Amino acid sequence: MKRRTFGTLALLSTAAGVTVEPAAALAADTAPIGFASLNALGQNGTTGGAGGRTVTVSTTDQLLTAIDSLEKLVIQVQGRIQIESKKGVRPNKTVIGLPGAEITGGGLDFYRSYNVIVRNILFTDAEDDAINVGQNSHHIWIDHNTFRGAIDGSVDIVRGADYVTVSWNHFDHSDKSMLISHSDGAAGTDVGHLKVTIHHNFFDHSRQRHPRVRFGEPVHVYNNYFLANDLYAVASTENAGVLVEGNYFEDVPFTVYSASGYADSGPGRAVARNNVFVRSGTPEVSGTVVEPRTYYAYTVDSPAGIPAAVRAGAGVGRI
After folding, report:
1. Segment 262-272, tens digit of pLDDT
2. 292-305: per-residue pLDDT in tens?
3. Which one of 24, 34, 74, 151 is least enclosed by Cβ atoms within 10 Å?
4. Which domain of life is it from (predicted)?
5. How many domains, in total, are found in the chain?
């Protein structure tokens, strides 16, 4: 199990692969926790460009050349880079921002890609999605980024993608934060896939999709801070299985949809446990969900401390 540094904090409880600890100012993870960490589909966890050359890019052409390379690379993004639409990222890359790094106007796209890490980048004003993980891409780690102003999704995980971890990101007043499966008609590509871990993110006055899920199971939503999400926080639809665990909801009128579906999508399944609700609605729970501990061990921080820990640790400049 990959662990963060907590000093000498005492354990509160342990059960079947799950550890609960007090939240604290946490050191940045050096490797993903959750689904992106697993050995599966011929991939030994998610290591990105580790072991390859390091290149620094500061122009649009340099960035596009690097992410389209067949070479294993650590790509350091420097300054503000303008791109258009969504640009493909080939396998075995780490795309990491140096201080002040920003990608604006467009986003990153994963089409049958794998073993990619995206960290420490401010994504602004994407004309479509800021990050789109699709077409059977797998082992993608999206960590310590900040998302603002995307016209469509900040992070979408669709079309049979699998083994994804989304951690320590700041969704800053975004509209459509995170979609998992793009359509009610996508059962053929998505059932049995879309295994995603979502932890320690700050959903900060973002409106909806934190995430909205179809078909995926398990989608593990734990230790996130949901603040003033005016449409809803989490929606499980089309028989998805979502575990909502150890989160802190503040001023969120609709925390979890499941049995009633959402919009035109049919019902899903959701289990909620050990969450804190402050001036927030009661979660709608339904059915059972495959336990994430079937796949990996993990640590749950005490939800009472999540606002402070996530405010201190999520987004760019925190690694």
Report:
1. 999 999 999 99
2. 999 999 999 999 99
3. 151
4. Bacteria
5. 1
Residue 301's beta-bridge partner residues?
A: 21
Beta bridge partners of 86: 107
- The helix (H) or strand (E) run that includes residue 81 is strand 80-88
What's the average model confidence in pLDDT over 226-238?
Answer: 98
Asked if residue 286 is part of any domain, the answer here is yes
C-alpha closest to that of 107 among 125, 80, 93, 134: 125
**Does 318 reside within a domain?**
no
44: burial class by Cβ within 10 Å (0-12, 13-18, 19+)? exposed
- Tell me whether residue 209 is one of the annotated catalytic residues: yes
Mean pLDDT score across all residues of the chain: 93
CA distance 113 to 85: 18
Range of the domain at 111: 18-313
CA diameter of the chain: 51
| Antiparallel, parallel or unpaired: β 39-40 and 43-44 | antiparallel
Per-residue confidence band for 28, with pLDDT thresholds at 50, 70 and 90? confident
| Selected catalytic residue, list 119, 148, 159, 209 | 209
The CATH number for 256's domain is 2.160.20.10
Cα–Cα distances (Å) from 300 to 16, 33, 95, in that order, read 12, 12, 28
Amino acid (one-letter) located at 80: R
CA–CA gap between residue 26 and residue 43 (Å, rounded): 28
pLDDT digits (tens, 9 = 90+) for 55-99: 999 999 999 999 999 999 999 999 999 999 999 999 999 999 999
How crowded is residue 70: how many other Cβ atoms within 10 Å of its Cβ? 8
Q: 164 is written with which tokens?
A: 């994804």
Give pTM, 2 decimals.
0.93
